[in-house]
siroheme decarboxylase
Amino acid sequence: MTPSPLARRLIDRFQHGMPLCAEPYKAMAETLGCSETQVIDCLQHLQLAGTLSRVGPVFEHSRAGASTLAALAVPPERLHQVAGRVSQYPEVNHNYEREHRYNLWFVLTGPDRAHLDNILQELEQDTGLTPLDLPMLTAYRIDLGFALEATP
């Protein structure tokens, strides 16, 4: 799917931050010269098409609680079932398959490390699989934004 001109402008302008105000979609629309309804419709269309996975904040995990990257080595015939179990936790904000012995990776975020440890223990008990727990030791900031519009 090729993004519409509005979608390209929306992504280019706001992929690194949304307005912090009571009506962010209205402020975005004013910046883009369109209506708030057009912004919301555009975002919904991008999400339904699978082009956009989420709109929301990214928090510095160490200031908002604790987080860890975890992985499981799941037998292929159980992958869908185990991924569904992992996704049942609201603390899971990514859950994806990788081509590796550890083929199911997910990120857990919670109020403290003990909370995350409890979830990892529950998952091990429920699935019989031992999670690989990879807490972040050093943060590296990488700009993952990509320009969609030609720059003059």
In short: Helices lie at 5-14, 24-32, 36-48, 61-64, 79-87, 113-127. The beta strands are 66-72, 92-97, 104-110, 132-134. DSSP finds six helices and four strands in the chain. The mean pLDDT is 89.
